[in-house]
Records
---
Amino acid sequence: MIPYPQFDPVAIELGPLAIRWYGLMYVIGFLTAWFLGRWRATRSRADSPQGAWTPAEVDDLITYCIVGLLLGARLGYALFYDFPTFIARPLEIFKIWHGGMSFHGGAIGVALAFIIFARIKHKPLLAVTDFTVVLAPPGLLFGRLGNFINGELWGRPTDVPWAMVFPDPAAGGVPRHPSQLYEAGLEGIALFALLWWFSSRPRPRGSTTGLFLLGYGVFRSLVEFTRQPDAQLGFLAWDWLTMGQLLSAPMILLGLGFILVSYAKRT
């Protein structure tokens, strides 16, 4: 067993202002996406499936994505995972420092941001998504690290040598999978490497988007087998199906569809 590091949830205190690690991880994720996006824009070409991009367009794109992600992730968590609580105490939805952000809700919010951005900038929607999904995994990496620092979304009880005892009383004081780190490694590092390699060569428009959806859906579904389901939901069926897996299934199917259709159109 590995001791769980005792983190102070507050990273920086400036008088009455407290900057929490959870929020700081989001900022780092957005800054990483912005930096990588501007770098990719300087190397984009008009004759590529993603089209030509300018750093100024990336600035606008990241702004749209930030708004879509934060609104979608918080509203998605309220709708998918803890609807009764937010109905009883609506103001809880603004307390994002308490955690409770749904990736799938955030993905819906970002998808809407893509649609609005593509219409305003007169860009093909799939060119926008292909360009942007490569920038998403670093944000997922830092977001999962934020979950780990918060000591939330821990895994199921286990006796593996790297198990940890999380300080949350709800964790029961038993060794558990550090599932947040599994997700950081798969959704953040492995998925980023896969997308970066795949998009380094010209690919049919929509295929990079499809690979992101497929890759995330598969990785998330696998980690869910080690992650403790949300207490207010539990298992949805068969003592193993979780909400995360249920929401990931459409992503897997949609991702496969994008890949198959994009390559079929190219032939």
---
Amino acid sequence: MAWFSGQGSGQTTASSPAAYAESLKPADEPAAASRLDRQTILLLLENAFYGAAHALSGTFVSIYLWKAKNDFAMIGWFALIHQLSTALTFWLAGKWVKEHNKMNCLRTGVALSASFYILVLLLGTKSVDYIMLLGMVQGLAAGFFWLAFNIVYFEVTSRETRDKFNGLAGLMGAGVGMLAPWASGLIIVQMSGNLGYKVIFSISLTIFLLGVVVSFFLKKRKIEGTYDWTYGLRCLRSPGNVWRPVCAALVAQGFREGVFGFLIALMVYIATTSEQKLGNFALITSGVSFVSFWFAGRFLKPKFRSRGMLVGVIMVIVVILPFYWKVNYMTLLLFGVGTALFLPLYTIPMTSSVFDLIGMNAESVSRREEFVVLREISINTGRMLGTLLFIIVISRSTAPAVVNTLLLLLGSAPLISWFFMRKVLRLKNS
């Protein structure tokens, strides 16, 4: 490869940043305690199981497809179908989680995730001929799971506990991210052909089943109100509504995630041609992320969010620059370690602040499902735009200068997120 060297007007929230700042008093949220209770811990465990199953196999899905057909555009189309399906599922399933049983929605997401790996096992190397089907199934799974998960997350946390929850979630994610891909890489290289892939996909199925079991210990959530299909759109059409810059920030967040979420692992594999080295890469970077999320979750208080976010944004851009020198395992590792070290400073304020905005008053809380849908559609819009740009560029050229510039462009999107969030963050914590 040339690239490598080896209801109403929509104004139910505060309609301006100033009004938003004024409204921030003790939040009318379902959970107001400053410590994590049993339900919160169970939700963290559910997240850990779901994350572990995907860390075990998800890291290697793009590698599995790549080995069957060396085609960047194909991987991009798989990701794009996944992202589009996820966004549509969020919007359509919003009615289910608001008016019916959101826990069943969560379990459906887990079950569909298991179904995805069953399909991959059944199709084998023919999976590359069913990219649209596989992308849709994985997108549906992600949409159902994360919609229900994010609603329950909002209901069991408060402004006082959100940074702690997100820090712990990141900590646990980094923990499984260390061990699962490393173990997967070891299994794959020790077994001939695609047997190793079949083994790790099968293990993931078992972990997803454990996740379903844990979900039954989460309490059935209260149902209130009716789902407004166009509520988020009306918010965005309302001049001065605080959700307009926030959604712009979320689109920028997704712009980077959409491509970096699948491309980095693929770059490591192409540069090394070794699943074991990819596993080692995940072990090292997740180890750094483990420490970073612990530190950020412990010390990144609301009043430090804006400054911390800016530092994180600048550094995740800087670590892309070594690619202009050479793209090999060492520069990829430098990128991975740098990203793992500083990304929590960006993602924790983004996540916590948006959910704080949802919980700023009783009227906003009553529309939490619509706001979560708006959040996720915004992120996935960014992901789709980024992935579409990737497909267009990579279909024309894989020259190092072209691809590295694309990575820098995509990787600089968090700066746009900070730009749109900075006034909200500063007003909120002033």
---
Amino acid sequence: MSERHTALHEAHEELGARFTDFGGWSMPVRYASDTAEHHAVRRGAGIFDLSHMGEVEVTGPQTGEFLDHALVGVLSGIGTGRAKYSLIVDEQGRILDDLITYRLGEERYLVVPNAGNQETVVRALQERAEGFDVVVTDRGPGTSLIAVQGPRALEVLEATELTPAQDVAGLKYYACVPAECAGVPALAARTGYTGEDGFELYCDNEHAPQLWSALLATAERLGTEDAPIGPAGLAARDSLRLEAGMPLYGHELSTEISPVEAGLGKLVEVALRKKGEAGTVTVGGDALTAMLGTTPQRTLIGLQGLGRKPVRAGYTVVVGERTVGEVTSGLPSPTLGRPVAMALVATDALEEIAAGTVGVVDVRGRAVDVEQTPLPFYKRG
């Protein structure tokens, strides 16, 4: 399958971006320096093209009831203008994707899946809509998504002809509001995937280049050496989300990793309890209930390197001579100055790991000294 291009692909080429395939999309992995772009988000602001993400609109009189059935989460209970993180699983409770769902109106929601899972989620929602008075529409092909992340994110938007600026500035975390930025109509949301404050702007593809150019012009005008502002690629996004302990589908989440193993047991428990009280039957509910009643074989933990040697995804986790798990994500942390990683390890090895007897082995059999550390590795403020 050929790579798909976002509406901003030519703009990225003009900036000299390096590209990578991500979920079937040709996406900018970096513009100049992974580390510099990472630090810009932590100190100033980074501007990301995230148009590879999916957008699925669900409308109709039974939309809330339908999403309560189709997803793990009580979506009917969120207010208009608010958002919720949830999962979509199959009948066996296997994770098909993790999602953010926005309630845009009484009978209108926007479900945002990950790029590589867009078709899977659309197909699952359309199949599960049978018997409900709803319409499921794939809005992904016509929608662009630009994110501005970092402590200066609001400043950047306000300096880019933002209206109504007061409403956007007043957004709570996991909330959204219709807005205009640089004259472009957009849905402004405040969620983020970097561990920093930030905003997402959903707009039509035809307006994306205008919005992108205006934001970069603001960045050039406002950026400073101590608090830089500029475009950032997916490499920086990956190191930022890892420092913040946020999972990535295909690494910490997949059909082979249960929600409980991934540390999302509490999310599942609360959702199923509320649905049980309401008499709602959810797809995969029985399998999820069974998972909650047993101790998971594996547990997701954080690791940090004791030296400078990097820890990468796929490295083996060992306790003594025993292999106990595998690193799911690992990178040198630009913010902390040491390697950090998340790993799925055998639950029955947790006591030994906590005692400090853990190590990892790279693909060539070389040992790297690590120790367990709480997640997340980084918290802003």
---
Amino acid sequence: MRETALTAAHAELGASFTDFGGWKMPLKYTSELEEHHAVRTTAGLFDLSHMGEIRIIGPEAATFLNTALVGNLAAVAIGRAKYSLICREDGGILDDLIVYRIDENEYLVVPNAANREVVAAALTDLAENGRAGSASGYDVEVWDESEGISLIAVQGPAAAAIIGSVVRANETFLVEELRYYAFTTVSIGGDEILLARTGYTGEDGFELFLPNDKAGALWLALLEAGSDHGLIPCGLACRDSLRLEAGMPLYGNELTTDRISFETGLPVVSFSKEEDFVGRAALEQAKAEGRGKTSGQRLVGLRGLGRRAGRSGYPVIATEGEHSGVTIGAVTSGLPSPTLGYPIAMAYVDLGFTEPGTRVDIDLRGKPQPFEVVALPFYTRKR
């Protein structure tokens, strides 16, 4: 397994580890519940250095990314970020990612850890060869910088106060005024660091991109600065429960090459842009056919009416009307919600069963448990 620059620091803190996308990552340090509640009430510190960082530079960077991804990246302002998808020609989702516009002709693409090499290869191939039938590629350079970059996140209500306490004194306002899905450059301990305000927990939070050799010092500085704010180190286990409560999809669970954007409910596809982006024809056909809207399946939230939680792959069963007893879908993610106190799940179900309030069962290894379709997200933070 690959290790991040902070693996030794995690071991010293007593972390238990897991294999995640080929990386040795901290699963938890003390208690998954304790870490989950810390993020919801104070703050949690995460090592996300397994994520990818792919830089796109060149005069055709905007046009290139508008061809590679489903969203309109040319419309993103410098200093802002956008969530998007990269798809196959058949519309299947290769990955979901965040794209930061660094400058007029420069972007930073952040894919998921397990998909980084797939995304880098797809972008490199498109840059060099262009779309099928085109005479040439694009005037851009694709640099996979993942091996040299560490990514640290602070998530929770106290995140802004913690970050504000470690930046240079005259830059505190940059933290306070940074908008959601935006980024800036700050100085911490004499080092210039890219600071973004995005997140994957449903709470306010920040991500810090920096070279590997600077990661250890920043990790310790954040732990020290956060000690008075209730900050604790957190692993991937609570990150999963946090993102599920916030209704955020996970690649490999809710997002796969077998699913298209319309089934997920993610409003990320831009048909108004002029570029013939990868998967456009297939997605236009799927939209015309009503896939994910009038036909097929759709991703929904399920609230448990009992005490047991559904897990990925468990069948969803209709309980009402002529389809009672029929399998209508399957769970993609599920667990007992630490914040809400009842089981929650996301599942793809047939379109006739997506209306909030619809009662269904999840088959827990032969034992049906009652659930109710609800709107996502399950949890929304107080602002």
